[in-house]
Every structure is written in structure tokens, then in C-alpha cells.
Design goal:
It is found in: Cytoplasm. Its main location: cytoplasm. Its EC number is 6.3.2.9. The chain is built from 17 helices and 20 strands. It has 448 residues and is α/β, with parallel strands linked by helices. It has three domains: 88 residues, Rossmann fold, CATH 3.40.50.720; 209 residues, Mur-like, catalytic domain (UDP-N-acetylmuramoyl-L-alanine:D-glutamate ligase), CATH 3.40.1190; 136 residues, Mur ligase, C-terminal domain (Protein-Tyrosine Phosphatase, Chain A). The longest helix is centred in the last third of the chain and has 17 residues.
Length: 448
């Protein structure tokens, strides 16, 4: 009898999982409580896959043999609880896709820097001529690529939500860039629960595999000391010289791996800031582990273009540089953003607070920020915390108003930085929408 697979959630990962399941001979049903995007409706109809939208038909779902769920659905919702009580296996799309590929997997997680590191690692591998796919929390669905393509390697950006529902997912190389408080509303406001989720990335790794991690992070070093995993560890540091591993020394990225030494002047690269030094060292480490030659690594680093909304320079107007860092949805991201500039900063921050602790950036804000513009419906927490820290605070719910105030407060040589420390969905659809509207508002200044 044909095994029945239900896909919960019909976005990129769900549609891809449905196509992979059908290609493997399963009886597939996709269910989404919301409205499906038309492009996914078209795909499902074309592939002759049964689906529903705007509801979950629980009687049908509970009769499944396997459920592949969207990362956005918490394990605590009643339907997932009922499935697990019935003994139905509930897994993530990355787990499902990994079951059907023999490709070597490079999996990257962390509270910050995942996307840049994933894109840079992919770029270095592809530039060196490797047959490599890019997937996970970025780009085209991992499951869809496994169904339709035949890559030798995958570089995967992996969120904690995706790691919550793995069973056998086994990266050959894993990277944990950092773990700082984020998404605590999903993890019962218990930081250890979030740490445990991130560390699922090494759960199935063996002594034949590698973990690349940031040794300057006390959270990571303590956790590794506690767990003592079998995987081979490779460190990254901004503070110390490592005999094996990668580090930043006098603005040079240095990596000693597999008996090879690689060096590159960081200031010559198209990315900036200490967080991007960490990201670059992680990507270099992967390239060295895979035997990519030094010239190809250097070439790839110099030709890399980062994704938008990550310390993206928008315009220089009257000597003031406007920078879009809308992807900075937590405090740690803002810490690295402020640390990237020596000039005075007018900071635009705010949005949906996820239990933020602003003490982490208090000293940086005191020393660097000449004015704070809170762009949010709920401005009280930020305003109250920094009222004695910065000389001036302005609150608004209009991004053009925020940018205009940034222009008013800034002088030639200053930075006007959108780095919100918060989620975007009080005023915007997502962080991309927020960043795009910031860029448009900046460019409106030119015509004023």
C-alpha cells in the first residue's frame, strides 16, 4: 500500500517537499492554513498533487504515515501534538530532503551571519568549479533540488526552527557562528532550549566530520565542553592566533587547515565589519577542508557580492552615508553593525521586540550614536532604555519621516544606519520590505 505523506505549509519548502515526495512514489497531500501563493498553486496543479488552503483537514492529516512540516509551525500547536501522540513521525523539509541525497552537506547555523556565510561559502565552492547547490533557509527548496538536480555538494543555511525536527540529518561539515538570545518566544523564554536547538546541527556528526565554530563565544565553548561531541572541531577567532583553524590578525584573515596556510587582507574584500571577518573565516575554512587552492579562494573572496539588507551602503548624500542593515533583527546584529563604523552614527531602530536585552549594545550606543530614531508602533522600551544614553531620541511610525530626521541630525562624514534589533512586522511585511522602503526613502532625499 502506498505510504501517505502530508506536507504542512505550502511555501517554498513545502512545495518542494511535495514534489520530492511524489517523485519517490508517496501518496501526497499538502495542507496550508493560510492562502497559498499563486506560483505554488500552479506548481501543485501541474504536478497533480492534492492540496488544500485556508484550512487543515485534521481527519485527513491524522491518517498520514509521515508529516513534513513548515519550520514556521511550532511543535506546540494542537495538530502537531495530536500527530505525535498518534505516533506519526513529524520532520522538517531538510530532514526529508537529506534522506534522498548522497551529496556532501555543509550546514551553517547561528543567530547572526548565516546568510552571508552561506552565500560566501557557496560562492567560493562554485567559483572553484565544484558541482554545488545552495538551499535551506535561502533560495530554492532543498527538497526540490534533490528531486530535480544532481549536486555533489549542498551549502545549507539552517535555522533553529528547521533543526527542531531533524532525526538523521547529518552534515559532513557544520558551522555554528554564534548563539545569542533570539526567538525566545518560540523556546519558552529559556535560552538553553534555543541553544539545544542550534546544537542539533552536530547531533549525528561523527569523528569523520567537522564542526567549525567561533571560539570567542563563551556560549559555544561552554556548550562544547559540556557535550564533548565526537566531531572534529575547527576554531575561528578574532582574538587569538590558532595553530589549527582560522583567525584575524592585523587585518589579515589567516587560516591553517589541512597543512595549508591561507592569508588575505580583509580590507581588500567587498564586505566589512568584525562579523563579516568571522563569516569569511568560516567560508575559507570550508574551502580549505575541501582542498580548494589558494588562488581560487582569494579570487572568490574578492568577487563576492553580499545579499541586500546586510550593511548595504545605499547612497552618500551631502557627505552622509546611508546604510541599510534591515536584516539586523536582533541585538547581537546591531552590536556587530555599530562595531563596523568609526564615524558618528544616527541609528534607526525598532519594530517587534522579541525579548531583547539592550545592555549588550549600551556602551557602543553611548560612544557612537549621536541620535536614536525609533521606528515602531511600540517605542517605549527602546526610548526608556536609551533615554539617558543618547543625546536625542525621536519616535515615528513613518520611514520617510525617520530618514528625514536622520538627515537633519547628521553632518558630513556621519552614518545614518537602519539596524533595527527587532522584527519588522509591526509596520512592514518583512525585513526585505523594511529595507526596500528605507532605500526608497533615502533616494527621495536626492530629489528634495
Amino acid at each position: 500500500m502506498q505510504k501517505k505523506v502530508v506536507i504542512l505549509g505550502g511555501g517554498e519548502s513545502g512545495a518542494g517537499a511535495a514534489i520530492l515526495a511524489k517523485s519517490k512514489g508517496f501518496d501526497v497531500f499538502l495542507s496550508d492554513k493560510g492562502l497559498l501563493h499563486q506560483k505554488y498553486v500552479d506548481v501543485l496543479i501541474r504536478e497533480n498533487i492534492s492540496f488544500e488552503q485556508s484550512q487543515h483537514s485534521e481527519a485527513i492529516i491524522l491518517e498520514s504515515d509521515l508529516v513534513v512540516k513548515s519550520p514556521g509551525i511550532p511543535d506546540t500547536v494542537p495538530l502537531i501534538v495530536a500527530l505525535k501522540e498518534k505516533g506519526v513521525e513529524v520532520i522538517s523539509e531538510i530532514e526529508f530532503a537529506a534522506r534522498y541525497t548522497n551529496a556532501r552537506l555543509i550546514a551553517i547555523t547561528g543567530s547572526n551571519g548565516k546568510t552571508t556565510t552561506t552565500l560566501l561559502t557557496y560562492h567560493l565552492l562554485k567559483n572553484a568549479g565544484l558541482n554545488v547547490g545552495l538551499a535551506g533557509n535561502i533560495g530554492e527548496s532543498f527538497a526540490l533540488q534533490v528531486a530535480e538536480k544532481d549536486f555533489d555538494f549542498y551549502v545549507l543555511e539552517i535555522s533553529s526552527f528547521q533543526l527542531d525536527n531533524i532525526v538523521d540529518f547529518h552534515p559532513n561539515i557544520s558551522i555554528i557562528l554564534n548563539i545569542t538570545p533570539d526567538h525566545l518566544d518560540r523556546y519558552g523564554y529559556d535560552f538553553q532550549n534555543y541553544i539545544d536547538s542550534k546544537f542539533n546541527i552536530i547531533r549525528n556528526q561523527t569523528e569523520d566530520d567537522y564542526l567549525i565554530y567561533f571560539t570567542d563565544s563563551e556560549v559555544l565553548t561552554l556548550e562544547l565542553d559540556k557535550r564533548k561531541p565526537a566531531v572534529k572541531n575547527l576554531g575561528i577567532s578574532l582574538e587569538e592566533v590558532l595553530s589549527t583553524g582560522s583567525y584575524l590578525l592585523d587585518q589579515n584573515l589567516v587560516s591553517h587547515i589541512n597543512g595549508q596556510t591561507f592569508e588575505q587582507n580583509f580590507s581588500q574584500l567587498p564586505i566589512m565589519g568584525p562579523h563579516n571577518a568571522i563569516n569569511a573565516l568560516a567560508a575559507i575554512s570550508v574551502a580549505q577542508l575541501l582542498g580548494i587552492n589558494q588562488d581560487k579562494i582569494a579570487e572568490g573572496l574578492k568577487s563576492f557580492t553580499n545579499a541586500p539588507h546586510r550593511l548595504e551602503e545605499v547612497e552618500i548624500i551631502d557627505g552622509v552615508t546611508y546604510v541599510n542593515d534591515s536584516k539586523a533583527t536582533n541585538v547581537d546584529s546591531v552590536f556587530y553593525a555599530l562595531g563596523s563604523f568609526n564615524q558618528p552614527v544616527v541609528l534607526i531602530a525598532g519594530g517587534v521586540d522579541k525579548g531583547n536585552d539592550y545592555s549588550q549594545i549600551e556602551e557602543l550606543v553611548r560612544n557612537k550614536v549621536k541620535g536614536l530614531i525609533v521606528l515602531s508602533k511600540s517605542f517605549e522600551k527602546l526610548k526608556d532604555y536609551f533615554s539617558e544614553v543618547v543625546p536625542q531620541i525621536y519616535t515615528t511610525q513613518d520611514i520617510q519621516d525617520a530618514v528625514n530626521k536622520g538627515k537633519e541630525w547628521s553632518d558630513p562624514g556621519d552614518i545614518v544606519l537602519l539596524s533595527p534589533a527587532c522584527a519588522s512586522f509591526d509596520l512592514f511585511r518583512n525585513y526585505e520590505d523594511r529595507g526596500d522602503k528605507f532605500k526608497a526613502a533615502v533616494r527621495n532625499l536626492i530629489s528634495q
